[in-house]
């Protein structure tokens, strides 16, 4: 996980540690599909994120194969048939938080991050709303948004069209620590 944080720091163009850098190594991410025949849910706690409070730069990365499903067959189909996880191993977001909340004070701040969401190798520019909470020096982020399968060229065969929703709900919960660079 440390390597992923370093990659995200490099990805954001951050070469030096600073007091405004926050990292998360175990962001909880869930995906949920509600369809007429069955609901499908998967979760992972392997998301990583870097947030530069001074510039608003934010990056997320999650290994697609880390999502766990209730049924192993669902997980196999997700990775092999829909997400092509060997070819596109990570889902990512790289963008900027538009607001500049004062992280030195406890509070809850509504924020919007605008940037590129890359899923299945296809980037889409998105503005994603979320809530940043500061409590006792701990910074956490929660967000929920929808991702259309067609926007990322994820093809759902007509045979299982009633099993998988056209849009997937994504929930993210991340708790950040101040970056302790070497």
UniProtKB/TrEMBL annotation:
Taxonomic superkingdom: Bacteria
Residues in Lipid/polyisoprenoid-binding YceI-like domain copies: 45-175
InterPro entries on file: Lipid/polyisoprenoid-bd_YceI (IPR007372), TTHA0802/YceI-like_sf (IPR036761)
Coiled coil: none
This protein's name: YceI family protein
Organism: Mucilaginibacter mali
């Amino acid at each position: 996980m440390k390597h992923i944080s370093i990659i995200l720091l490099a990805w954001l163009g951050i070469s030096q540690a600073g007091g405004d850098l926050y990292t998360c190594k175990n962001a909880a991410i869930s995906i949920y599909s509600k369809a007429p025949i069955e609901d499908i849910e998967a979760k992972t706690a392997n998301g990583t994120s870097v947030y530069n409070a001074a510039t608003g730069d934010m990056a997320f990365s999650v290994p697609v194969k880390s999502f766990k499903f209730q049924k192993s067959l669902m997980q196999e189909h997700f990775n092999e048939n829909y997400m092509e996880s060997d070819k596109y191993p990570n889902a990512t977001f790289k963008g900027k938080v538009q607001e500049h909340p004062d992280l030195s004070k406890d509070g809850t701040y509504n924020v919007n991050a605008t940037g590129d969401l890359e899923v299945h190798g296809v980037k889409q520019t998105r503005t994603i709303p979320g809530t940043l909470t500061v409590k006792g020096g701990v910074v956490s982020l929660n967000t929920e948004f929808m991702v259309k399968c067609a926007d990322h060229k994820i093809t759902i065969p007509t045979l299982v069209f009633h099993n998988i929703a056209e849009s997937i709900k994504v929930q993210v919960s991340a708790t950040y620590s101040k970056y302790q660079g070497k």
